[in-house]
Write a structure and sequence with these properties.
Order of helices and strands: HHHH
Number of strands: 0
Length: 83
């Protein structure tokens, strides 16, 4: 699994986010259990599907950017390297 995560870590963040958005919706639509739990949690918080639709894609983005967070290069900020 680690080699796959290391491979995904080299992709640009915008591409990982686009793929994650699609994967989030795919998981929501393909998994009745995930969909039921997601909607039950939203309802418990007082929200309907229309109000949390964006969260479906955002959950996928979160999962897709994880390899980059774990295995990606440490960014340089203002020309400084991390300590």
């Amino acid at each position: 699994m680690a080699p796959l995560l290391r491979l995904l870590a080299v992709f640009p963040l915008w591409l990982l986010h686009a793929a994650g958005q699609a994967v989030g919706w795919l998981a929501f639509l393909a998994s009745p259990t995930y969909r039921r739990r997601f909607l039950a949690n939203a309802a418990q918080a007082g929200y309907g599907l229309g109000q949390v639709r964006g969260a479906v894609g955002q959950a996928g983005k979160l999962v897709a950017e994880t390899p980059r967070l774990w295995f990606g290069r440490t960014p340089r900020i203002n020309g400084c390297s991390p300590a």
